[in-house]
């Protein structure tokens, strides 16, 4: 099959059910290099499951995933080869509690990439600087604020030099006043050309950074398009209502900043 | 014969010899029992169905039968199928097997108390299961298991006296021999008790220091 070289991530016809409940009913999309895709939709529609199916933390029942033209699903290679190249940022951070901020960022470099300890430390420091946390490098997760934790986890993902980073509601567990610093860090990545897939409810943010917004409902993509199109001229009434509701709930604060 | 003379000139040397045997017993059983406990706990939590149930069966057997019975089987039973152990070896093996079972329960509980997100984040980084267990799960779980495992280690120091039942003259055994020869049970076992207390105190102190040293800043 001829594939577009610019496409970093391709997801094709992902199905997943838990027990009898179908969570995902055939989701497909492509992410180009440097693109930011934002996935939105009511809770319980399988957005998180979809992200996890991409790096096979959840094994989809059907469907295929490619990373830079190489198939991730049904691969003979170890899945860990792919996971190194797919960064993931979780809603509740999942920082390793027994390691300092620096330790969290460098452990993947040392244990997974086999990088020399000094080099790993240097690189980890650079990544922490990138998210503005070089002064917190030697603090433990329990000593950091939620926003700082999430920025460390972004640095942890970045350190692996991923081809794409998946964000699973990165600001949903944060106090309102801490959301801004995390969105700022993500926005910087977008500006630097990182390829990203984000699940978020921050509509203002989605509007300002997304190249495309994908609206998922009941395990399927109902509609997708540029933020402008979805906000101003959606195909479905359902999309418009959802966007209106979610914008009222979460505001557009980040866009105004 | 004054009590002081008895203790200094007759009791002390054999008791010290016994203490050395006891130290030999626990110095090997503590670390090896702990390692066995870790393996059993990991097998139980992360093993496939077969491994997990084997580990569970092991724990049921070794926690469910008296240590004394286990020691008798090792020392008096196994020779009938051609396996011979010296008293010291039989006792050490018995203690390792038994304390491993208890340690594994503390460690298993600790592993299960680690949030699932830790494993997920480790795997998302590209770590294998084994790497994630070694570098992410166990360092956290073992810290949490220290209080429980400390308990088991202290028990082990005391139940090491059961080695006497397979003819090993350790501390309690040495005391028993002298006590019955001189018929001075109170004096002898008071001193024996004090020696155990000293050993337990040293180990407790060490374990508390270890727990303190390994404490993760900011937690709790």
Structure, described:
The complex is a heterodimer of chains A (257) and B (220). By secondary structure, chain A is of the alpha/beta class. Chain A has a domain of 68 residues. In chain A, 39% of the residues lie in helices and 24% in strands. Chain A has ten helices and ten strands. In chain A, the strands form two sheets. Chain A has a six-stranded mixed sheet, with helices on both faces. In chain A, strands 2-1-4-5 form a four-stranded antiparallel sheet, with helices on one face. In chain A, a hairpin with a 2-residue loop joins strand 4 and strand 5. With 220 residues, chain B is mostly helical. Chain B has one domain: MetI-like (MetI-like fold, Orthogonal Bundle), CATH 1.10.3720. In chain B, 81% of the residues lie in helices and 0% in strands. Chain B is built from eight helices and no strands. In chain B, helix 5 crosses helix 6. The radius of gyration of chain B is 21 Å and the shape is flat. Chain B starts with a helix and ends in a 6-residue tail after the last helix. The mean pLDDT of chain B is 94. Chains A and B meet through helix 2, strand 6 and helix 3 of A and helix 5 and helix 6 of B.
Quick synopsis:
The complex is a heterodimer of chains A (257) and B (220). Chain A is of the alpha/beta class and 257 residues long. Chain A has a domain of 68 residues.
